[in-house]
Write a structure and sequence with these properties.
heterodimer; A: 262 residues; alpha/beta; TIM Barrel; 8-stranded parallel β-sheet; B: 338 residues
């Protein structure tokens, strides 16, 4: 069975693994991870791009064929996110932007309302907008209206490696929203990424887990394979999971048990 | 965590418990920050001071040469720091409203914006409207240390000047946050008073701030009292064991918080502390006004003596060899406010 490509804003990708670039202990690990996983979309925080210093400029470590998704890390409201996105575009980072509006430095949960506002403005300006949100149906619907190219709900707290804690809420988005749902944040292991794909996510983004692994390039590859496996599982039409154990007091047994013995 | 719990942890000096604490903190730090260590350069703009703090090299009673850099002079200093590769700057002054008024600091911020992506300021506490002006001029961060949360001790070491007012100083972080500052740094001067109480009170201060202003990125500093040329100093020494535990406990209780490390500490200790939870450090520092480009080394009156004389390049090399990722740029100027 062959898969269709992931399509975002009319652009096709054969990889469904998005990689974040924070927290790598060195930039060579980052390059190796992109190469080993064949990831084609990579997020970079504008605040971390050192344009002046070639040796330290993270962009020099990202292969040219990769689509750059600049994120607005550091923005605390819509206005700041919009400014960061414009600055990214002006700095030559393209017009793909992951809107990240966080006004809580303890839990780092995204502010959905401000994210929607920023999405409206940036989409109208021609940006390809991928907003990072807490999985909420109304927010996702507002983002569709705002012209977002995809929706990126969090699996659990960012950087926590806790996995798909918001599974049922993400499932609602997958069922109801006609945009690619890309699970972002909290995905700590390949099996968790596979799980997200099995329920029908279009792609998964991971960062902390890969960046802080003993061997980032190997884990990046493992993520890519797990995502492919999960995707195939989804496409196969997974069998319903039924409990095999017998209930102790069957509710429908009476239908058959009361046959009079002759 | 209660005062008693913190006391138990900080007073338990068995090597195993210290090691356990450090291991947990190190793991958490790596998960939260990877190997990222933000580097910044301190720039002393002025040492005029109207406060009399018994422990400080700049205090108003010391007969040191008082200097305030003129714009062309601090521009030179900024160019020097910039040329070392640093893009975050911390501008410092003594506490003098008269000599370094908001207008002076604003001009410095505007010039700093030409060279730096992150601009923080450590100066006298100001009012909210003044912080707003500075924020609009490009200052993103404010550092203000309470020094000690023990009111009685505070009164003993802050003899005159506006710094004498404990409550005004305590509320400074709230005013800065109200004005829109992104980054606020608090700290205690270890050695001034009971470190257990001060650590506990600092944590409480941070928790209160987090609730009132959750969007601010907080960081903490734990400078230890060091000898200054003209000195009358520490009442209780904080040894390396206790110092390590304070850093580790801070990481465990505040997983995402920035922890600063100053050049007051020896390079060897600095390197070890990085593993445990440090996320920000100064590099290539000079703590004298005009110390980078203006003054001969022998003519300098530093605020405190630095113990780490390594250049930025040396520190970067050392960080990389230990699997850390030195971060020069962690912000991009957007027009603040408006």
């Amino acid at each position: 069975m062959t898969d269709t490509p992931l399509v975002i804003a009319g652009k096709s990708f054969s990889s469904r693994f998005l990689l974040g670039t924070g927290k790598f202990k060195n930039k060579k690990d980052l390059t190796d991870s992109i190469v080993s996983s064949k990831s084609e979309i990579v997020t970079v925080a504008l605040r971390r791009i050192d344009l002046e210093r070639h040796e330290e400029n993270i962009l020099e470590y990202i292969p040219a064929h990769v689509t750059l998704l600049t994120n607005t890390s550091g923005a605390r409201n819509a206005r700041e996110a919009v400014r960061i996105a414009r600055l990214a575009k002006a700095s030559g980072c393209g017009n793909w932007v992951k809107i990240e509006v966080i006004n809580d430095s303890k839990y780092l949960l995204p502010d959905n309302q401000e994210t929607i506002k920023a999405a409206e403005i940036l989409s109208a300006e021609g940006f390809v907008v991928l907003p990072y949100i807490s999985p909420d149906l109304y927010a996702a619907r507002a983002l569709v209206k705002a012209g977002a190219a995809a929706v990126m709900p969090l699996g659990s707290f960012i950087g926590s490696n806790q996995g798909l804690k918001t599974k049922e809420f993400i499932r609602v988005l997958i069922n109801e929203i006609d945009l690619p749902i890309i699970v972002d944040a909290g995905i700590g292991t390949p099996s968790q990424a596979a799980q997200a794909m099995e329920i029908g996510a279009e792609a998964v983004l991971a960062n902390t887990a890969v960046a802080t692994a003993q061997n980032p390039a190997v884990l990046a590859r493992a993520f890519a394979l797990a995502i492919e496996a999960g995707r195939l599982g989804f496409l196969s039409g997974l069998p319903l999971q039924l409990s095999l154990s017998q209930a102790s007091s069957p509710l429908t047994g009476f239908l058959y048990n009361d046959i009079p013995a002759n | 965590m209660t005062f008693q719990q913190i006391k138990n942890i900080l007073n338990d000096n068995t090597p195993q418990s210290v090691e356990d604490l450090a291991q947990e903190a190190a793991k958490l730090s790596r998960r939260q920050f990877g190997g990222a260590i933000s580097l910044y350069g301190p720039l002393y703009l002025s040492n005029f001071c109207s406060s009399h703090c018994t422990y400080c090299g700049f205090n108003s009673h010391h007969k040191i040469e008082r200097i305030k850099l003129a714009p062309h002079q601090y521009r030179n200093e900024m160019q020097f720091i910039h040329a070392q590769g640093l893009r975050n700057i911390l501008m410092l002054t003594g506490e003098s409203y008269k000599h370094t008024p908001v207008s002076y600091l604003k001009e410095a911020a505007l010039i700093a914006s030409e060279y730096f992506q992150g601009i923080a300021l450590e100066a006298h506490p100001m009012e909210t409207f003044e912080y707003k002006e500075l924020f609009t001029a490009g200052v993103d961060g404010i550092a203000v240390y309470q020094e000690t949360y023990d009111r009685a001790r505070y009164a003993q070491v802050h003899l005159s000047g506006r710094k004498k007012d404990y409550d005004f100083r305590y509320a400074t972080a709230y005013r800065a946050a109200e004005a829109g500052m992104r980054h606020i740094s608090l700290g205690i001067l270890l050695g001034l008073s009971d470190p257990v109480y001060d650590t506990f009170a600092l944590y409480q201060h941070l928790r209160e701030l987090e609730k009132s202003f959750p969007g601010v990125e907080y960081s903490v500093s734990f400078p230890r009292l060091r000898t200054v040329k003209t000195a009358s100093l520490a009442s209780c020494d904080v040894n390396d064991v206790q110092f390590v535990k304070i850093i580790a406990l801070t990481r465990l209780l505040f997983p995402r918080m920035g922890i600063n490390l100053s050049t007051r500490e020896e390079p060897k200790l600095r390197d070890h502390l990085l593993e445990i939870g440090i996320t920000r450090m100064s590099a290539g520092s000079n703590t004298s006004v005009g110390g980078y480009t203006l003054l001969e080394k022998k003519a300098q009156d530093p605020q405190f003596d630095t113990k780490d004389g390594r250049s930025v390049d040396e520190i970067v090399k050392s960080l990389k060899s230990r699997n850390f990722d030195p971060v020069f740029t962690d912000w991009r100027h957007i027009e603040n406010g408006l």
